[in-house]
Write a structure and sequence with these properties.
With 490 residues, the chain is mostly beta strands. The protein contains two helices and 40 strands.
């Protein structure tokens, strides 16, 4: 016979059910938080341990991922938590070379392996443009255009449209009024492509004649708007670099070793805000890093930085030996400024904020890391995203990862006593060089190096904007050719 529970019994039941529900919520929430933080139950020792999270992606995606020889059961883009320690990782996809890397991971860390470029196992070369002669080919920063120069003494270039698979070219001839002595007989002219602006519309061309140098700014979309900066300003430059995308603003190193800001729209030249400069480079259109000598003591060589709008430059390193190789590079990663300085074979990375415009106090930039190479540093640079530093010394180079504070050593293969060419950035995480007649692509740390195609050294190379093709210059039976290799298969 059913007996109706008393009020006390109902209350006890409610308390028990409420307690179970509350406890369940706490357990589920705790388990979820622990899972998100990377904690897993180690089947080997039965302990709850915090692991490391790996995020995978690849171009093209859809690659299988294995960790320590075991497939994880999902394809890129994907993620996986592993126990702390050293792990061997492989990404593979049918028709492509395997990508591999071994990493030592700490508990509670997140590592992105999303920069992987899979390379096709078969890499046939496809010619897309032919030239009887070729002295220069430069590809724009956005990989949409290439400017090919067939003869150094003729002011005509071929503008190559790389935006589609059907490659088209159009002739681009400098107006006679844009360079000196254009119609004077007996004058020898030499033209060379120096650089593109960051907006990939304007190019800087150097013109040599009668032992004189002129700098010509070419609007590749409207060549009639070409401007001779030297004629306009009446000043000689040993170097001129774009600052911005207007094609009108530059920083220039004049013949007397000073750096000034140039505005072609207003035909003005700023005061000399850095003096005794040997060489310089520009980061983010506003930060100048330079190598030179101390204005007050010619026996001291210096490296420093200058930000647009500052009263003066800020010297970051000074050495008394003129034989010591000095180099400097700048970058910005998340909210911090970084400066890499090479002194001989030692590279020091500083982190913090650039000195203020009203102070010479450099204490806001503190030592972040340092490493050494076997020889003097011949090239130093940050990756386009500033998350990696590359220092090269001949055939050896060292990479440093800002986020994970680790370094790797790589080597460049050379032959027949040839000197190694300087590594160049292909994208945010890959390098390329063209030693020994072969274009080689490698990860920033030197791992996963692949010979892409036979090439002629000394010309530009680039991935297409969508990463589908790799463009470079090679030899043909009749001269030279712009050629490509398909990097993403159909």
């Amino acid at each position: 016979m059913f007996k109706k529970p008393t009020k006390k019994q109902l209350l006890i039941r409610r308390i028990i059910l409420s307690s179970i529900a509350t406890l369940s919520v706490i357990i589920i929430a705790t388990a979820t938080i622990l899972f998100m933080l990377g904690y897993r139950l180690d089947s080997g020792n039965g302990k709850l341990e915090q692991g490391a999270l790996l995020q995978f992606d690849s171009s093209p995606n859809g690659a299988d991922v294995s960790i320590d020889g075991r497939m994880i059961g999902s394809r890129t883009a994907t993620k996986q938590t592993v126990v702390a320690g050293t792990h061997s990782i492989k990404m593979s996809r049918s028709g492509y070379e395997d990508w591999q890397r071994t990493l030592t991971l700490n508990a509670g860390t997140l590592t992105w392996l999303d920069y992987t470029r899979l390379v096709p196992a078969s890499r046939p070369i496809q010619p897309v443009a032919a030239y009887e002669t070729l002295v220069n080919l430069s590809i724009s920063p956005d990989s949409r255009w290439a400017l090919a120069q067939e003869k150094a003494d003729v002011p005509t270039f071929q503008l190559v449209d790389l935006r589609s698979e059907d490659i088209k070219s159009s002739a681009l001839t400098l107006p006679a009024a844009s360079y000196s002595d254009a119609s004077v007989e007996g004058v020898t002219h030499s033209f060379s492509i120096v650089s593109w602006d960051s907006g990939s519309r304007y190019t800087l061309v150097k013109h040599l004649y009668r032992d004189q140098t002129e700098w010509i700014v070419v609007d590749t979309q409207n060549v009639s708007q070409t401007i001779n900066a030297t004629q306009l300003l009446g000043v000689g430059f040993t170097d001129l670099q774009f600052a911005g995308t207007s094609g009108k603003v530059f920083y220039g190193l004049t013949n007397d070793g000073t750096i000034r800001k140039v505005d072609l729209s207003a035909a003005t030249l700023s005061r000399a805000f850095i003096t005794h400069v040997d060489s310089f480079s520009i980061f983010d259109n506003t930060v100048i890093s330079y190598v030179g000598t101390n204005a007050g003591d010619a026996t001291k060589r210096v490296v420093g930085v200058y930000r647009d709008g500052d009263e003066s430059a800020h010297i970051l390193r000074s050495v008394t030996s003129t034989d010591v190789v000095l180099k400097i590079a700048t970058g910005r990663y998340f909210s911090d400024d970084y400066v890499a300085i090479a002194e001989g074979n030692t590279v020091t990375i500083l982190k913090g904020s650039y000195p203020s415009s009203s102070s010479q106090d450099n204490s806001s930039l503190a030592r972040f890391a340092s490493f050494e190479l076997s020889g003097a540093v011949s090239a130093l640079s940050f990756s386009p995203g500033s998350d990696y530093v590359i220092a090269q010394s001949g055939e050896t180079f060292k990479s440093y990862e800002i986020e994970h504070t680790r370094s790797d050593v790589g080597t460049i293969t050379t032959a027949n006593g040839n000197a190694a060419t300087t590594l160049k950035w292909l994208d945010t995480a890959h390098l390329w060089n063209d030693d020994n007649g072969t274009l080689v692509m490698r990860d920033f740390n030197g791992i996963n190096a692949f010979s892409i195609m036979a090439v002629e050294s000394g010309f530009g190379a680039s991935l297409s904007q969508n990463g589908r093709f790799f463009y470079a210059v090679g030899k043909s039976d009749t001269g030279y050719q712009l050629q490509r290799v398909k990097m993403i298969l159909d």
